[in-house]
Amino acid sequence: MLAGMVLKLISCNVFQREVCLCLARTPHVVDVEFTELGEHANSGGLRQLIQSKIDATEAGGKPYEAILLLFGLCGNATSGLRAQRTPLVLPRAHDCCTILLGSKQRFAEHFKDAPSTPFSSVGYLERGDYFLRTDDGTPKVESGDAYAQLVAQYGEEDAKYIWETMHPPLLDHGTNRAVFIDIPETTPPAMVEQFRQKAAAAGKECVHLQGSLRLIQNLINGQWDTEDFLTVPPAHKITGVYDWQEIVRATPA
To answer: How far apart are CA 57 and CA 10, in angstroms?
Structure first.
């Protein structure tokens, strides 16, 4: 861990409890801005919002050693983001599920066979208009979304294969499951019971998984190993890879 760094963190507020706890444990000076959970409904709009915060951070003149992004690919919202003078650092994650679980390996263990299984956390219960994060796996075709970028990169036939591989149709047990990712340090027991009641009312089987602060704490602490994090040099941009391991890479802007 590098001591005494000055960092900027831009994070979705679905992680607000977790971020606040991890900030109290870090030796670094970290300035934080949160985006609203609802911004995820429009990946293009979220991309513009995050980019505007990156640009404003650099224009502000404070000499940050890195700008941390607590997002995954998030429907391609982070693909294309760049900074001119400051490294960007973000987790190698498709979405917040991996971040909440603490590793790509745990995400693959529990979600690889049905990556669109609905899931939730204390942040979704507090910050969202819905208690489950859902994804029906249907590729969208509006400009700038993940499927359109796959088509542009690989062609229609290969893009369809890649998308279907990463978003297989949910099995019956998948559609009936509702997963709650519980990070014990930040989840009040009453929230777990609230989720169980909501899942039961929706006719879903409640599955309880223990989450982890590991990725969030390591991001804030400057422990950016290449297995878990991508560091994007200045004048480079984030590019989606859409696999299960690398997920994102840096390419010249």
So the answer is: 10
Nearest C-alpha neighbor of 234 from the set 24, 20, 81, 26: 81
Q: Token digits for 88? A: 């960007």
Question: Encoding tokens for residue 115?
Answer: 């990556």
CA separation for the pair 82, 27 (Å, rounded) = 26
Burial call 28-41: b when 16+ CB within 10 Å, e when fewer: bebebebbebebbe
CA pair distance 211, 21, nearest whole angstrom: 15
Residue written as token pair 């208690």 = 131
Contact 159, 149 (CB under 8 A): no
Instruction: Provide the whole-model pTM.
Output: 0.84
Length of the chain in residues, anyone?
Answer: 253
Those residues whose C-beta lies under 8 Å from the C-beta of residue 194, and which sit 6 or more positions away, are 125
The pair of structure tokens assigned to 35 is: 């985006």
Contact (CB, 8 A) for 147 and 141: yes
Instruction: Provide the residue-wise pLDDT of the chain in tens; the chain has 253 residues.
Output: 566 899 999 999 999 999 999 999 999 999 999 999 878 778 889 999 999 999 999 999 899 999 999 999 988 899 999 999 999 999 999 999 999 999 999 999 988 887 778 899 999 999 876 677 765 333 333 333 566 666 777 777 666 656 665 555 444 444 688 899 999 999 999 999 999 998 898 888 899 999 999 999 999 999 999 999 999 999 999 999 988 899 999 999 9
**Contact 54/66 with Cβ under 8 angstroms?**
no
Residue 51: CB atoms within 10 A of its CB come to 16
Question: Which residues are 238's β-sheet partners?
Answer: 250
